[in-house]
Please model this.
Amino acid sequence: MKKLNLVVLASGGGTNLQAIIDHIEAGKLNAQIKAVISNNSKAGVLERARNHDIPAIHLSHKQFATLEEFDLKLLSILKENQIDMLVLAGYMKMLSPVIIREYKNRIINIHPALLPSFGGPGMYGIHVHEAVIKSGVKVTGVTVHMVDEVYDHGAIVMQKTVPVMDDDTPESLAERVLKVEHQAYSEALQLFAEGRVEIIDNRAFIKK
Ligand code: GRF
Model:
């Protein structure tokens, strides 16, 4: 079976990146990370990549005169590495339609709630868990989904639930959800590695 070639795009601490690396190293995910790219030069995610000898690239819109030039650079990195999938793991910028079209059904993201609830603009980080608690729902979770041109909208590949406790704070809930993310993302990527995901009309079907 061919290894899935991945590039990870992230802006923050990178615990999801770390979980993916750990799954690969444990032989549970048949993939290799060709590069980690961050728009933030100080992001922990770049440090984590370096610790595992993965090329760590700082690439920000601010380094280019136009968005088009940024897109071309990003595209050239993805092409050079012959990636199968682009993995967003806490990437705080929108990708251009050019990238999304070029890598249709090959860009994947993880969201810390059960989409389509608690998604969309402004729904990131602790804001998601605040909204979940405020709404009074008893169950939240994680969603691994494809990225299309609409924020938090692409085909849902995997969801896992997490109970909301009466005494949860946004922080305590975030912590439990994050642990589930770390499992779900690699499991979902392994489905792609096994060639088991088919996307039809914005729905992901998982072959047995
Ligand atoms: C995660 O909660 C993920 O769902 C969201 O961004 C966060 C990234 O966390 N998209 P980390 O940098 O992987 O720790």
Notes: The helical segments are 15-25, 44-51, 67-80, 97-102, 126-135, 170-193.
